[in-house]
């Protein structure tokens, strides 16, 4: 692998160093005075140079290398114009772009607003773009529900998100990580209205500019951004009905005047949901004879409220400088009630005892963040510097109350125990990031930057045994854990276009320093313990693209990635789910490292195919530990894995008014390692398909029909059987195209049931899980304001991977 990387980097450097310099040609033309002129490579639309038209509207652009070029002309308040292509051959010459005057934007903008329609899926050289707005079925949905429809994305029964079959994905919003993982990330995505999302970008092999975290890549959720002058915005309301009711609402507002642009967004929803989980366990002796069985039926119901707000402003200090500030936050209180009935039998299937348990939880999750950003264009050659400073704070609490009643086979009460818990948590994150871009000799684009981040978490777990209404602290379960982490990073990336070839090489260095402290308590078995680690890693990336012609494009990429354990996975707390099931962190977890290679092919933007290979070292996964009848789910670095996947995405116009998009994935995985002191060898192949049909009718009517299927999968100790789901939606444009009414059905043949099994130590378990997934929704969307195009608002900051790794108890 090292030889391959070295060869690619040397080849790139040699290409850059020995590229022949040609006698300059000149492209000249005339347009509106003070317009900005962009010279682009016709092969891939990458920017080569920029210029500004003089007071008379004249401009000239020198060109050093032969090739085919396009000229793009822009000016605020006017429609963009394109001229070309122009072919520059071996001989120096003067190329005339003639005269191209720009038309005022207001003349045709209304037509653009009405007729423009994005495709559901767009394939770009470094990412796949999933346009949520193009989905009718997104009405009333949440971010998590539309994310499940994105090509190559899987959300498993526990809420873990994977991309092209690999877990460890980094979730970002507007280019800034969510700073959440685990159940709290799922809570956020389950609450965020899909109506506030414009698109989702999927990157399996991000460039050196991005944090190296996320060994399976990055999913960036882009929220809607208003770009119009004056006062304008949009509103969306929706009501859904499954077993219980749900609402999903959002509001975006924007006001731009003179040098100021003020923007805001608000979201609020209410969701009442339920879940049924059945688990049957078999316990065996050391010589594999059945010793006992355990059957458990669990039901829980939760009510979740979510309110969010984002308010910010951009100040255009000059033509080249923009200063912005963004305040954001959310509040997510949650109530949960549940119960379970557990039956224990001996090896002769005779009931030994029963446990009737009830569980009550009340939790809250608050967030506040501020981002300060600056963007300055130094000159017209492409020199630009940006800076982001972020302060983010999370505060959460979880009050638990468990009652376990142990019954005799006859049903008579033997005894009961009551446990209460108070679990507060605070997380503070500070981040600073600076990026710089410029053109080097030989038409090489250079991007470089540095980043600093610091995270401080403080977690308490206070448990009490309750007897006769009096609480007595349970020192065996009570704990206090703090964690500090500092990451310093720097990167450089070089890119160049040579005829039909595109080359890019980058290198990112990250230095990580961390410290954890588990405070002791009066029990001799719970002394103080702490750990410190410091390590530095290099993460190279390489991209090669080849455009054979207008219809055929080929690509290759390589990158090294890292997945650091989320903060709560390092926390050695016991988090109780019920009397017989709990989670526990592992402070000795090491980060996962991955090597990722991908070959891709694109035909006419209709067919995109890729082969992806990934090697993971020190893979983190669930490690189930048996302590009597109790099952503790911890995390462990259990070994390594190899995976190979074939991904095919096809867009086909079946007939007029009917377009279909089909995503297919065939994935082979090979796991090797040790867990629970036993060798673990798991090999498996699974298939996934996702199809979406879009129908366009007359008089503003449209419809959608979609479905997905995933075959049986196996990872480490867990096997999940195949699942499928189907949905439909219909939309009618109203109010002269400014509004729409949508009806949708999600999982209309459901509710979907997830079944499977897990084997560990001397235990076998089968499970069956179902949720309130069949939902019928009606929604209304309306946009208002003058359709006059303005400057783009800055909506996100530069904080990186740290936020993705915040996790809290459900």
Observed structural traits:
single chain; 810 residues; mainly beta; 31-stranded mixed beta sheet; 6-stranded mixed beta sheet; 47 strands; 65% strand; globular; disordered N terminus
User: So how many helices?
Assistant: 4
* Unreliable stretches covering 5 or more consecutive residues: 1-23, 106-116, 787-796
Instruction: Give the class from helix and strand content and strand pairing.
Output: mainly beta
Distance between termini?
Answer: 41 Å
Q: Please state the average pLDDT score.
A: 81
Radius of gyration: 28 Å
**Largest beta-sheet characterization:** 31 strands, mixed
Query: Rough shape?
Result: globular
Strand content: over 45%
Portion of residues within helices: under 10%
Number of strands: 47
Give a topology summary:
Elements: H1 2-18, E1 25-30, E2 36-41, E3 47-52, E4 58-63, E5 67-74, E6 81-88, E7 94-99, H2 109-115, E8 121-123, E9 128-131, H3 143-147, E10 153-155, E11 161-163, E12 166-167, E13 170-173, E14 176-177, H4 182-191, E15 197-203, E16 218-223, E17 230-241, E18 245-257, E19 260-284, E20 290-316, E21 321-331, E22 334-346, E23 351-377, E24 384-407, E25 413-422, E26 425-440, E27 444-467, E28 470-473, E29 479-498, E30 501-519, E31 529-547, E32 552-563, E33 574-578, E34 581-584, E35 592-603, E36 607-627, E37 630-655, E38 658-675, E39 678-696, E40 701-710, E41 713-715, E42 718-720, E43 723-734, E44 739-746, E45 753-760, E46 763-771, E47 775-784
Parallel strand pairs: 1-7, 13-16, 34-37
Antiparallel strand pairs: 1-4, 2-3, 2-5, 5-6, 8-9, 9-15, 10-11, 11-12, 13-14, 15-16, 17-18, 17-47, 18-19, 19-20, 19-46, 20-21, 20-22, 21-23, 22-23, 23-24, 24-25, 24-26, 25-27, 26-27, 27-28, 27-29, 29-30, 30-31, 31-32, 32-35, 33-34, 35-36, 36-37, 37-38, 38-39, 39-40, 40-43, 41-42, 42-45, 43-44, ...
């Amino acid at each position: 692998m090292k030889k391959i990387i070295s060869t690619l980097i040397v080849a790139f450097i040699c290409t850059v160093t020995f590229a022949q310099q040609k006698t300059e040609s000149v492209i000249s033309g005339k347009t509106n005075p003070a317009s900005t002129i962009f010279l682009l490579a016709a092969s891939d639309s990458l920017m080569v140079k920029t210029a500004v038209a003089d007071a008379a509207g004249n401009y000239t652009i020198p060109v050093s290398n032969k090739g085919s070029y396009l000229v793009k002309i822009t000016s605020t308040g006017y429609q963009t114009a394109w001229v070309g292509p122009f072919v520059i051959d071996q001989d120096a010459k003067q190329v005339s772009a003639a005269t191209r005057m720009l038309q005022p934007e207001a003349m045709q903008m209304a037509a653009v607003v009405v007729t423009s329609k994005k495709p559901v899926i767009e394939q770009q050289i470094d990412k796949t773009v999933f346009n949520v707005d193009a989905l009718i079925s997104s009405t009333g949905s949440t971010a998590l529900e539309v994310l499940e429809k994105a090509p190559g994305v899987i959300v498993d029964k526990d809420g873990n998100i994977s991309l092209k079959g690999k877990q460890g994905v980094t979730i970002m919003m507007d280019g800034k990580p969510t700073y959440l993982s685990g159940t709290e990330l799922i809570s956020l995505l389950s609450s965020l209205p899909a109506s506030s999302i414009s698109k989702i970008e999927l990157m399996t092999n991000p460039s050196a500019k991005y944090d190296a975290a996320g060994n399976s890549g990055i999913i960036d959720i882009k929220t809607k951004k208003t770009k119009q002058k004056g006062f304008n915005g949009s509103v969306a309301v929706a009501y859904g009905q499954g077993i219980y009711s749900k609402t999903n609402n959002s509001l975006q507002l924007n006001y731009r005047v003179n040098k100021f642009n003020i923007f805001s967004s608000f979201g609020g929803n209410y969701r009442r949901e339920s879940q049924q989980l059945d688990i049957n366990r078999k316990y065996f002796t050391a010589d594999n004879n059945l010793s006992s069985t355990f059957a458990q039926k669990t039901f829980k119901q939760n009510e979740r409220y979510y309110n969010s707000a984002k308010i910010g402003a951009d100040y255009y200090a000059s033509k080249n400088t923009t200063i912005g500030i963004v305040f954001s936050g959310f509040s997510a209180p949650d109530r949960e009630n549940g119960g379970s009935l557990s039956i224990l039998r001996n090896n002769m299937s005779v009931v030994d005892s029963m446990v009737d348990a009830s569980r009550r939880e009340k939790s809250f999750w608050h967030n506040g963040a501020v981002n300060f950003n600056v963007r300055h264009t130094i000159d017209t050659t492409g020199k630009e510097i940006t800076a982001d400073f972020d302060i983010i704070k999370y505060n959460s609490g979880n009050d638990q109350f468990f009652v376990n009643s142990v019954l005799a086979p006859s049903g008579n009460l033997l005894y009961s125990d009551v446990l209460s818990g108070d679990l507060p948590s605070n997380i503070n994150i500070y981040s600073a990031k600076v990026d710089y871009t410029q053109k080097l000799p030989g038409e090489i684009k250079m991007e470089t930057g540095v980043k600093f981040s610091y995270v401080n978490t403080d977690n308490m777990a206070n448990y009490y045994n309750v007897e006769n209404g009096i609480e007595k602290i349970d020192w065996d379960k009570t704990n206090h854990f703090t964690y500090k982490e500092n990451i310093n990073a720097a990167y450089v990336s070089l890119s160049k276009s040579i005829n039909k070839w595109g080359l890019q090489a980058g290198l990112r260095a990250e230095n990580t320093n961390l410290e954890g402290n588990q405070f002791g308590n009066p029990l001799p078995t719970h002394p103080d313990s702490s750990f410190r680690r410091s390590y530095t890693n290099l993460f190279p990336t390489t991209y090669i693209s080849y455009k054979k012609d207008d219809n055929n494009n080929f690509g290759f990429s390589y990158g090294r990635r890292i997945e650091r354990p989320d903060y709560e996975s390092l926390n050695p707390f016991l988090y109780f789910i019920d009397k017989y099931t709990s989670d526990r962190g592992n402070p000795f977890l090491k980060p996962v490292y991955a090597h990722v290679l991908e070959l891709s092919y694109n035909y006419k933007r209709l067919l995109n195919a890729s082969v992806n290979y990934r090697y993971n070292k020190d893979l983190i996964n669930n490690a189930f530990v048996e302590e009597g009848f109790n099952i503790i789910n911890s995390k462990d670095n259990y070994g390594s894995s190899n995976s190979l996947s074939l991904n095919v995405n096809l867009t086909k116009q079946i007939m007029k008014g009917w377009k279909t998009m089909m995503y297919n994935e065939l994935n082979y995985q090979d796991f090797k390692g040790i867990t629970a002191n036993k060798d673990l060898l798991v090999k498996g192949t699974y298939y996934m398909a996702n199809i979406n049909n879009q129908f366009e009718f007359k008089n503003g009517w449209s419809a959608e029909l979609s479905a997905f299927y995933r075959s049986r999968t196996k990872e480490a100790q867990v096997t999940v059987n195949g699942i499928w789901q189907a949905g439909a939606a219909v939309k009618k444009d109203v109010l002269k195209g400014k509004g729409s009414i949508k009806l949708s059905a999600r999982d209309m043949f459901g509710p979907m049931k997830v079944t499977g099994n897990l084997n560990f130590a001397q235990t076998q378990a089968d499970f069956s899980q179902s949720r309130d997934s069949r939902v019928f929704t009606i929604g209304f969307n309306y946009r208002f304001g003058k359709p006059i195009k303005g400057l783009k608002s800055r909506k996100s900051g530069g904080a990186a991977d740290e936020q993705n790794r915040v996790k809290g108890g459900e």
